[in-house]
Amino acid sequence: MTDKKLVLGMGMIDGYGGLHGAWRAPHVNPGTYADVDATVRHARAAERGKFAFLFTPDFPAVRGDVEHSTISNLMDPLIQLTAVARETTNIGFVATGSTTFQEPFNTARQFKALDVLSHGRAGWNAVTTSDPAVAANYGRPVADRAERYQRAHEAIQIVQALWGSWQQDAWIKDQAANRFIDPTKLQPVNLQGQYVASRGPLAIPPSEQGQPVVFTSGGPSPHLLSIAGRYASGFIAEVWTIEEARAQRELVREAAREAGRDPDEIKYIAGLMTTVAPTVREGLDRRLRYAGEVLEARLPHLGAMLGIRIDPARIDEPLTPEQLASARAAPTDPRSSIALEVARQGWSARDVLAHGVIDFHPTVVGPGKLHADHLQEWFEAGAADGFWVTPDIYEDGIDAFVDEVVPILQERGIYPTEYPGTTLRANLGVPRQYGPDPRVT
Amino acid sequence: MTDKKLVLGMGMIDGYGGLHGAWRAPHVNPGTYADVDATVRHARAAERGKFAFLFTPDFPAVRGDVEHSTISNLMDPLIQLTAVARETTNIGFVATGSTTFQEPFNTARQFKALDVLSHGRAGWNAVTTSDPAVAANYGRPVADRAERYQRAHEAIQIVQALWGSWQQDAWIKDQAANRFIDPTKLQPVNLQGQYVASRGPLAIPPSEQGQPVVFTSGGPSPHLLSIAGRYASGFIAEVWTIEEARAQRELVREAAREAGRDPDEIKYIAGLMTTVAPTVREGLDRRLRYAGEVLEARLPHLGAMLGIRIDPARIDEPLTPEQLASARAAPTDPRSSIALEVARQGWSARDVLAHGVIDFHPTVVGPGKLHADHLQEWFEAGAADGFWVTPDIYEDGIDAFVDEVVPILQERGIYPTEYPGTTLRANLGVPRQYGPDPRVT
Fold first, then answer.
1. Which residues have CB under 8 Å from B87's CB, separation 6+?
2. Which neighbouring-strand residues pair with A56?
3. Do A106 and B109 touch (CB under 8 A)?
4. Contact criterion met (CB below 8 Å) for A348 and A281
5. Alpha carbon distance B164, B372 (integer Å)
6. From the CB of residue B432, how many other CB atoms can be counted at a distance below 10 Å?
7. B106 vs A87, A102, A198: nearest CB
């Protein structure tokens, strides 16, 4: 038993929630996408639950079924989080920003400005972008992976160097002596990469946490691990099983070690989608109500995952003993074993789907205790340092999580009852950093 | 006599004010540059005075005498204005953004997100950037003027097209019918320029004013007039005399006419720097207290403007009758005639300098009535539709302007007593616009 606590972040995907039809729940304002009052409400609810940060994924192009579902991200992650900064006090803001399509000087400037004005609560989820629809919005071809990651290394190095270019003791602001800044402590960085470059300096002083926290996210390719190991203090993962997460977390920690850092300084954050309800049945009904037709359409996919055919006419019946006997979890898809486990509990095919077995992250449906059990099991198995939680419907799903799950975690001693501090670094449990990490060569 | 009222904006240059040493006034927190509480306080003070907008110039590089004065702009104009959006209700936010060094898709997205979350109060001061120090921060050479302006045309056209790409009636959000967006009304723009391009669409709905207001700023070169005439609803000027301003304003209006627009739809905004004090003498003393050494160093420059030599030992004496007789305003510098006029009033050379005769804009020093007279004279002479005011020291200079100048303008019937509306367009008096202006070809 250690003192270590798990860390929670909340995924702010679109204003509505993780369910495809969250936007059309009667208690939800369907105009929430453009309503920053709602963002504020959600941020404050998460802050009540001592969440360490809000995390905004981003995909700067229109995709998916926008006729029946929503735009899959906030209007603009950084702008929208900035707007709520002054209405919260402790929660951090981890906004996704592309190393491929944003200028390093602009990234450095905007994120550090948010860090200073939020008193040390900003984080940058630095990602590369390979989607052709996004590239087209910037009028550029998709760069190959080697180029994207080379540019990412250059961009992050430039950003961190710019962050450190106003030295920590540069700002004299001595009115009587008439000295504002010591200009010798505000020096160019003069970094020239193959794809991006900047002279600097950046004229923004340190925040209460020094500089924004670098995150990254995605699958653990060698390219991404090289980014994570060298620069990131948070790794936003997409994983479905404890085994997968443990292996992946170890890769991330090893990458940090190889880069010369202490692996405890990078927090591995697994995803979780939540439906908190008094019973599993009520939770499933809520999910079917707002995503039913989408779930139903996934029936053939479920059959493929289990290696069996499921008759659409029998969607409301449990799998037969024969089906269960011949079902095999597809080894290429880690979600299959979860689907099989749920099916063996005797749920109908529709209810198996309503358990979220075909989604971006593991899903827990039911009372708070089930959620707490999942988080504790993963945490104590070394599968994650923390979790980013996407509630089914933000409007009441955040409060339900805070009221029904958080107290159990606190009682079990694995989650803080008060914020450890007022900065994102303090609440993540990662050390202060200013400028590039001198251990990384 | 018409109903037309003048419009006021406030220049937010750095957090401290227009005086070189504003940061070291004892009643000013020298850490204001990083203190967004102060930005909020200043914005609210301006809003109390029915200012239509805050205007943030921008120079994204370190320049000037930062050892004794300040960084010459906010940490990040757009981020800092966004942070105060929710603590104000009517005032607009005109942030400078470079067409040269920002991606049009990012500009379109960030400004429209601010526009939506501020309920229609955003403006974009679209400028080209030619300074080598700024270019170096982006790792690029300085582009020549033709290229910069070609890129500016392309960037603004792309931004406006993206703003219009979510059609005004695209957002159905009918929960019962399960229709979120009409995807046929969210269409790509597919603009391909020589320097920038974007496919779109941009997934942000209209704000209460449609889309952000485009401003531009600078000297009236043919290149800039072509930008202003086609796209801008506000023109931020640097002019020193009524004659100069009238001529320039006419050029701007003519450029709008030539582009197929109504010239009344572009507001010409002249600059003004202010020191409001019970008497001129007290105002001059305030200015000397916080910029004295800088003013004194300008003595040779003052001599050159007047075509005479001024002995530094006689800086505290009025010009002699002989000096005044031989003094001639340098025809190449419009500030010279103002300097000569002040000198003829019998002020010492030091006090002439303290009148701000060598500064970025005309300066008025003294009681509120003098300021009101200046504004009224320019306004009624057709030299400006409005003014952007930079107080000497924000901390008390905005309140002084609001308490001592605004009521006089209101009594004279040339300034609104209430905000005309809640959007920037309403308060500027420019029409709603969505997407590109169809009259401009």
1. A86, B40, B43, B44
2. A95
3. no
4. no
5. 40
6. 14
7. A102
Q: Same structural domain for residues A215 and A344?
A: no
Q: Are residues B131 and B225 both part of a single domain?
A: yes
With a cut of 80, say whether residue A441 has pLDDT above it: no
Instruction: Look at residue B188 and tell me if it is in a domain.
Output: no
Q: Encode A169-201: b = buried (16+ Cβ within 10 Å), e = exposed.
A: ebbebebeeeebbeeeebebbebebebbbbbbb
Closest residue on chain A to B133 (Cα): A199
Q: Which of B250, B251, B249 is nearest to B386 (CA)?
A: B249
DSSP 8-state secondary structure symbol assigned to residue B83:
H
For A304, counting Cβ atoms within 10 Å of its Cβ (0-12 exposed, 13-18 middle, 19+ buried), the class is middle
| Residue A68 touches chain B, beta carbons under 8 Å | yes
Would you say residue A331 lies in a domain? yes
pLDDT (tens digit, 9 = 90+) per residue, A173-218?
A: 999 999 999 999 999 999 999 999 999 999 999 999 999 999 999 9
Q: Residue A99: what pLDDT?
A: 97
> Which one-letter DSSP state was computed for residue B256?
H
Half-sphere exposure of A301 (CA within 13 A, CB side): 15
- Shortest distance, CA B353 to any CA of chain A (angstroms): 21
Asked if the structure places residue B191 within a domain, the reply is no
Domain membership of residue A217 as a residue range: 7-275+364-428
Hey, what are B49's tokens? 């005075």
Consecutive H or E run containing A10: strand A7-11
Q: Is the pLDDT of residue B1 over 90?
A: no
Cα angle: B382, vertex B384, B387; to 5 degrees:
150
Contact criterion met (CB < 8 Å) for A30 and B180: yes
| In chain A, % of residues over pLDDT 90 | 97
User: How many domains are contained in chain A?
Assistant: 2
Using CA atoms, how far apart are residues A112 and A106, in angstroms rounded to an integer? Answer: 10
Type of residue found at A76: D
The conformation of residue B175, written as its DSSP 8-state character, comes to T
Element (H, E) at A281: helix A280-297
Task: List pLDDT tens digits, range A64-92.
Answer: 899 999 998 999 999 999 999 999 999 99
Residue with tokens 């001061």: B125
A234 touches chain B (CB under 8 A): no
**Is A338 found in the same domain as A238?**
no
Q: Say whether residue A175 is in contact with chain B using an 8 A CB cutoff.
A: yes
With residues binned 3-state (H G I as helix, E B as strand, rest as coil), the percentages for chain B, rounded to 5, are: 45, 15, 40
The rounded distance, in Å, linking the Cα atoms of B114 and B77 is 12
8 A C-beta contact, residue A23 and residue B173: yes
Tens of pLDDT, residue by residue over A224-263, are: 999 999 999 999 999 999 999 999 999 999 999 999 999 9
Average pLDDT value over all residues in chain A:
96
Residue A269 lies in a domain: yes
Q: What span, in angstroms and rounded, lies between the C-alpha atoms of A46 and A7? A: 12
Mutate to test the interface with B, among A29, A79, A124 (most CBs of B within 10 A): A79
Contact B205/A at CB under 8 A: yes
Q: Same domain for B335 and B371?
A: no
Complex ipTM > 0.95: yes
**What is the pLDDT confidence band of residue B292, given thresholds at 50, 70 and 90?**
confident
